[in-house]
# Entry
Amino acid sequence: MNNAMTFEFDHLFILTDIGASEANRLSSFGLVEGASRIHRGQGTANRSFFFHNAMLELLWIHDPEEAKSEPIHLTRLWERSTNRNNGACPFGICLRPAKGSEDTVAFSSWAYRPPYLSETMSIAVGTNSDVLTEPMLFQISFGKRPDQYSAQKSQPLDHGVGFREITRVELVSPAANNPSPELQAVLDTNQVKLRIGTEYFVELGFDGEVQGQQVDFRPGLPLIISW
# Structure
């Protein structure tokens, strides 16, 4: 079940302070920001950058009471955000099924139905959602490559730095030596890599990293970009 043909990397979120001013550094670097949104009823808001095959999302708690309400609190977004400088992993990793595999979920999961989705839709959230030392894992059956979005939902995909596709997602974590079965299942899809480090950060590689270039956005944002 778990192979690179069955699942695709959809997006990464990084939890930030309110307003995600860190997005301005990404814009100054040469990325073109796409649409932002408030997740009605979930208590979060975002700023996002879209590429041909995937998306990078900077996410923050917009409404603490909503984030702590039923059923939102089961995601542990509130705890993950408030403890992200105190041992909690600040990331979320979202997969989508490849075409023809829509009924397959990469990891054991529970059905999350946030208010901003229609009643017939849900998000599969990993049953390790209480493990705050790991990224929040989730899968959306309705996910698409941004270059396949409808005209109404299309986002800017042309960036000043020329990036087209995310070709490597590597999580660095102090807790990498003992992944949960859910996180191991994601690693087995070959969409995400994991290695041990003294702090949480993520490396995103673009377009095969053939130019051998790299920029480090730490400490303001736990992100390294290579291309």
User: Anything to note?
Assistant: The first strand starts at residue 7 and ends at 15.
